[in-house]
Design brief:
The protein is α/β, with parallel strands linked by helices and about 260 residues long. The protein is built from seven helices and twelve strands.
Length: about 260
């Protein structure tokens, strides 16, 4: 008996304290505020806010209210207003993102250079108390980035990123890139889509639902979609639907 108890103790000590990471089920509600978050507690289950623009106290307040705080961080672009902008060597910086002043693509295939920068960002997510991370701009390979990045390079990067997030106890979501979903769905805990209704690919995220993982489907007002039809499709697929303005401030509309 003592040997058995000792073995169980060793097993518990060997198991990371963060083994139980957040894997939201379909139907989990979601709010996304990347600009001007003022600390007001939204009613949704999970709240996605910017890593750098928000303090640990705001994250703590969300957790105290029973919310899951998600840490937004761009992994596929360099932003000239971020405090760690000087950490990026010139070799990582590519062409500007069309329509997003101050941003340039980064070479996600060069994990040797990019990896340490992103690990510092994940560490900051943890230090501020976030429970999950939303990595943005995963579609570098599909854009005129200035780099020769393949689909295979991207899948390799996505797997590395998920492994690193999990090693730090963070849940991680797959943002867009439905083409790579099959290659990484076992590594990602939930998904976030933009414009899937306007672009006719919402059904591509159904494998996440079938795996018991939430999909947060966001549409934007500037597309002038039929919101009633979007809600109907989202309900049929099991997606959590949300209508936002492109600025991603606090305004939103959920399905009835």
């Amino acid at each position: 008996m003592r040997a058995l108890l000792f073995g169980l103790l060793i097993l518990c000590l060997a198991t990371p304290a963060h083994a139980e990471r957040w894997v939201p089920e379909p139907g989990t509600t979601f709010e996304w505020i990347l600009q001007g978050y003022d600390g007001t507690i939204p009613s949704a289950d999970a709240i996605d806010i910017d890593l750098f623009d928000n303090k640990a106290a705001q994250v703590a307040a969300l957790k105290a209210a029973g919310k899951v705080p998600i840490c937004y961080v761009s992994v596929g672009s360099w932003e000239n207003w971020r405090p760690d902008k000087s950490d990026y060597p010139a070799a990582l910086l590519g062409k500007p993102l069309d329509g997003w002043p101050g941003e340039r693509y980064v070479d996600i295939s060069n994990i040797t250079l990019l990896g340490p920068i992103l690990l510092k960002r994940l560490d900051l997510c943890v230090a501020k108390g976030f429970l999950a991370v939303e990595p943005d701009n995963l579609d570098v390979w599909q854009n005129n980035s200035g780099f020769k990045i393949s689909r295979a390079d991207t899948a390799r990067f996505l797997k590395w990123l998920a492994t690193m997030a999990h090693s730090k106890g963070l849940s991680i979501g797959l943002k867009n890139v439905p083409e790579l979903q099959a290659a990484v769905i076992d590594r990602y805990d939930w998904a976030l889509t933009e414009d899937c209704f306007a672009q006719h690919w919402c059904a591509d995220s159904k494998p996440f639902i079938d795996a018991g993982k939430a999909v947060f489907a966001v549409e934007y007002t500037d597309n002038r979609i039929n919101f009633t039809k979007f809600c109907a499709q989202a309900k049929s697929l099991g997606l959590t639907a949300l209508l936002k303005k492109r600025s991603l401030r606090d305004w939103s509309q959920s399905c009835p």
